[in-house]
Write the structure tokens for this entry.
Amino acid sequence: MKVESILRAKGRQVSTIQPWAKVEQAISQLTGPPKIGALVVTGVPRGFTGMITERDIIRGMKMRGADLLTMPVSSIMTHHVPTCSPTDSIADVMMKMTRSRYRHLPVLDGGELVGLVSIGDVVRVRVDEMELETGVLRDLYVAKH
């Protein structure tokens, strides 16, 4: 299965924010509705410049206190974020997430941001695959006996 199948099921909507926006605005977007775990930081015509997550905000609060709320998102965002493409396999994305310890990966197609996949999306697809495999094996067993 490929990343494209996740995007078809959940849509290509990506919540974004500009690097000059205040962290307070990022918190407002993250807490929703809908509640989300990450925002893609844009500020270029195509693609993205980084991401800001709940974890980035927590760490920023520890280091900077309440002053963080009035600071720009660029002051705490992650700049070098791993990405994936619509043609990447779910197994490759799982491995990339595990190795990099990122729970969200922007999906780029030709350098353009076309979606965002989360660890929850990937796990859901993997569980569905496993349930399908189990059902097929059960049916084969019943058919033979």
